Amino acid sequence: MSIAETHKRHWSRRFALQSLYQWQLSGHSVEELLAQFSEDENWHKVDKEYFTELLRESIGNAEKLTGVFTACVDGSAERIGHVERAILLFSTYEILNKHDIPRDVVISEAIILCKKFGSPGGYKLINGILDKVERNLAD
């Protein structure tokens, strides 16, 4: 994958984070979110197909994906904030379904986004949960 493609995937994940965060708070449909985010000034930086896939699959399979990552939480899953939950949704989807993407890339991207947008120290929670998701998949 070229550097330009990698950069576009990063922006796809960033938009997925923002749209899934909004979805949790507003309940907007996938179509409403796609329409809104396609108007963003950074839309040209996004791998549009990948963003659409992340958004559709994360929302469409939210219950299953949430079950997978909450099973990997030490303590109460209630402590997971909206930003971290959004990251966990699309990252868990990627780990379970995108076998062409190295899992360490998925986890690294999740940590980077959490450090930028999540709660202080939230990236440690993300790292621990996704590491367990990955290990459980290998078992």
Notable traits:
single chain, 139 residues, N-utilizing Substance Protein B Homolog, Chain A, 7 helices, globular, mainly alpha
Question: Can you describe this structure?
Answer:
The structure is a single chain. α5 runs parallel beside α7. The relative contact order is 0.14. The longest helix is centred in the N-terminal third of the chain and has 24 residues, at 3-26. By secondary structure, this protein is mainly α. It is built from seven helices and no strands. The chain has one domain (3-138): NusB-like (N-utilizing Substance Protein B Homolog, Chain A, Orthogonal Bundle), CATH 1.10.940.10.
Task: Please summarize what this structure is.
With 139 residues, the chain is mostly helical. The protein is 73% helix and 0% strand. The protein has helices at 3-26, 30-37, 48-60, 62-70, 82-97, 103-117, 122-138.
How does the helix and strand content classify structurally? Answer: mainly alpha
| E-strand count | 0
Report mean pLDDT, rounded to a whole number.
95
Looking at the structure, what is the overall shape? globular
Main sheet makeup: none
User: Helix amount, in percent?
Assistant: over 70%
Percent range for β-strand residues: under 5%
Q: Tell me the CATH topology.
A: N-utilizing Substance Protein B Homolog, Chain A
Task: List the uncertain runs.
Answer: none
CATH superfamily: NusB-like
CATH architecture level-2 label: Orthogonal Bundle
Count of DSSP H/I helices: 7
- What is the end-to-end distance? 29 Å
CATH class: Mainly Alpha
**What is the radius of gyration computed over CA atoms, rounded to a whole number of angstroms?**
14 Å
Order of helices and strands: HHHHHHH
When the domains are counted, the total is 1
